[in-house]
Amino acid sequence: MNNIVFIGAGSMAEALIHGWIENNCVSNEQIFITNKSDTERLQTLQSKYGVQILGNITTLAQADLIILAIKPKDAHAAMTTIAPYLHSHTAVLSVLAGISMETISATLGVRPIARVMPNTSATIGMSASGVAFNEAVDEQLKSIYLKMLSAVGIVIEVAEDQLHAITALSGSGPAYLYYLIEAFEKVGTEVGLEKEIVRTLMVQTLAGSAAMLQSVKEEPSVLRRKVTSPGGTTEAGIRALEEHHFNEAIAACIKSAEARSRELAKGN
Question: How many separate domains does the chain show?
């Protein structure tokens, strides 16, 4: 992939750019960026990463790969704009939630398309991504896609319909965990700790718990029970979570996000 063009320059585009450059997967000279009208954002990314601003839309014909990284609501207009300028060999990688490969093909023509749902942890090479491919992606190109995505974290190939669930789980997952940390910080200060102390403790607690799950290969329920002594503080906390319907809240969160992804797919 000699020329890679990002259509859209938001947080996910930046996460991939940073991850690829940081992990020596793609050089900054290979990356071009464009968006609808925010030239200041483009200049910021150019200054920060040394990438190129796409000066003329007609040069899209030279792109080996375009990354669709605009907001889903802007997808149709953006794809309609770029479609006349794409070469027949240009492949597509879409990070758009809810926009199907069939919809992309209907606008951009039949070509190799991959849909991926990474998360913003791609910035530090720790994304958890699900990816689906259309029939035009041969094994050689699939290998290239997987190599690029593996450079910013783990990637799992799935059926396209499963991307709705992955969007809700790992795609949006960092936001849920940051929201959890916000809640810990709020209550931590209410019980007398400084916010910085709470953050340090809880970030390490999350990191340690994740490392335990990866290393010991035990079920979460088993590890939870090992921490939960009968009559102890953890048991009291777990009981409070159950009384406040913690599992139901998590289920509602994931199912709502998954349903929204499907709504976006129907609307495009």
Answer: 2
Please state, in angstroms and rounded to a whole number, the distance separating the CA atoms of residues 33 and 21: 14
CATH number at residue 66: 3.40.50.720
Asked if residue 168 is part of any domain, the answer here is no
- The mean pLDDT of the chain is 93
In the chain, the amino acid numbered 27 is S
Question: Is 165 among the domain residues?
Answer: no
Q: Which amino acid is at 33?
A: I
| Calpha distance 107→41 (Å, rounded) | 27
Classified as helix, coil or strand, 252 is helix
pTM of the shown model: 0.86
Q: What is the pLDDT of residues 10-28, one digit of tens each?
A: 988 998 999 899 888 899 9
The Cα 87–Cα 90 span in angstroms is 5
The string of pLDDT tens digits covering residues 124-146 is 889 999 999 999 999 999 999 99
Residue at token pair 């190109």: 141
Q: What are phi and psi of 16, to 5 degrees?
A: -70, -45
For 153, the domain range is: 4-159
Tokens encoding 102: 């069939």
Question: Cα–chain-centroid distance for residue 246?
Answer: 25
Residues 33 and 68 in one domain: yes
**Residue 109 and residue 214 in one domain:** no
Question: Helix or strand or coil: residue 118?
Answer: coil
